[in-house]
Write a structure and sequence with these properties.
With 77 residues, the chain is mainly β. The protein is built from one helix and six strands.
Length: 77
Amino acid sequence: MADHDHSAIKEHMHVIGADGVHIGTVYHLDGERIKLTRADSGDGRHHYLPAGLVASVDGDTVRLSANAANAVDLFEE
């Protein structure tokens, strides 16, 4: 997303790393952060990812520029 228009990110989209590994499901867009559902978090809390990590939005999938392990390290609460 070269233009950094995050309006294409919608609830219930799948978030995957650059390596194709599922990271979570979009709860909603919160400013410049993507809030993920608690169901995917493993610890019962919402996690946030910086929207700047988004490489592309394709159908119902948000693909990040970082692989899954690196993206999880960038989780914010």
